[in-house]
Design a protein that fits this description.
Layout lengths: L2 H15 L2 E2 H8 L3 H13 L4 E3 L2 E3 L7 H4 L4 H12 L7 E4 L3 H8 L6 E5 L2 H7 L5 E5 L3 E3 L4 E3 L1 H8 L3 E6 L3 E2 L5 E3 L5 H9 L1 E7 L11 E4 L6 E4 L5 H9 L3 E4 L6
Parallel strand pairs: 4-5, 4-9, 5-6, 9-12, 12-14, 14-15
Antiparallel strand pairs: 1-3, 2-3, 7-8, 10-11, 11-13
Helix pairs in contact: 2-3, 5-6, 6-7, 8-9
InterPro entries: Carb_Metab_HTH_regulators, DeoR-like_C, DeoR_HTH, NagB/RpiA_transferase-like, Tscrpt_reg_HTH_DeoR_CS, Tscrpt_reg_HTH_GntR, WH-like_DNA-bd_sf, WH_DNA-bd_sf
Organism: Streptomyces galilaeus
Pfam family, one: DeoRC
């Protein structure tokens, strides 16, 4: 059995039945426990599961913003710096929820821009920067993830237009589909896409394929993907076929 297929079956078993022991997975897959342990290590490195004593567990739910903000900070900063270089003075920028959008906001200080966001941490970061016209979208507060969601947020977005949207994600499938772990965020993200001239996906290497059961959009809705590592061949092919530019952070283009 190919490693990719084993990985799919392992994740499916964990999502359907909760924590699973190495011995159980070994029997289900017909491979040695050593092979399962290597698979679990690889999947953990990709951010798809957490190893526990004797096995592994998958948590599809959102982690609190403060916890996610401490993960892969250097990678997110590299992506944010490359994304910030795309923006010209005087333009309007829509920033999605999430920690990479927050890292991008930190790159925008001292510039003459309009920033629109439903991300409360972005708002707090830029609130005292008088050079930035800051628009905070209304909505229901999701306290754990520091964001605003719901029909009020979507209605606000229908009245606005931004030059750029910098979109976050929990996963990008091999077909180029952008996924999210939280269904309530998806309508807001879709409204952001409709309100924007160009859509840039910010996705570190752990987001390929990442997690998420809810589809936000297909590759045809994206203009650029900024990432910190080469994208796997299948996903890259899907993105390029849809006309999406794949930009490697730290280089002009990948």
């Amino acid at each position: 059995m190919l490693a990719e297929r084993r990985h799919q079956l392992i994740l499916r078993a964990l999502r359907s039945g909760g924590p699973a022991a190495v011995t159980d997975l070994s029997e289900q897959l017909g491979v040695s426990p050593a092979t399962v342990r290597r698979d679990l290590l690889r999947l953990e490195e990709e951010g798809l599961l957490t190893r526990v004593h004797g096995g592994a567990v998958v948590d599809e739910g959102d982690q609190p913003f403060a916890e996610v903000a401490e993960v892969r900070v250097a990678e997110k900063d590299a992506i944010a710096e490359r994304a910030a270089a795309m923006i010209e003075e005087g333009q309007s920028v829509l920033l999605d929820i999430g920690t990479t959008a927050y890292r991008l906001a930190r790159q925008l200080h001292g510039r003459r821009l309009t920033v629109i966001t439903s991300n409360l941490v972005v708002y707090e970061e830029l609130a005292d920067d008088e050079g930035i016209d800051l628009v905070l979208l209304g909505g229901m507060v999701r306290r754990e993830y520091r964001s605003l969601v719901g029909f009020l947020t979507e209605d606000n977005l229908r009245q606005l237009h931004a030059d750029w949207l910098f979109l976050g994600t929990s996963g990008v499938r091999p077909g180029g589909e952008v996924m999210d772990t939280t269904v309530v965020e998806v309508p807001v993200k879709r409204a952001m896409i409709k309100a924007s001239g160009k859509v840039v996906l910010l996705a570190d290497t752990a987001k390929f394929p990442g997690t998420g059961m809810a589809k936000v959009c297909g590759p045809e809705d994206l203009d650029v993907v900024v990432t910190n590592a080469p994208v796997d061949p299948a996903t890259r092919s899907s993105l390029e076929e849809a006309g999406v530019e794949v930009v490697l952070a730290g280089k002009a283009q990948a």
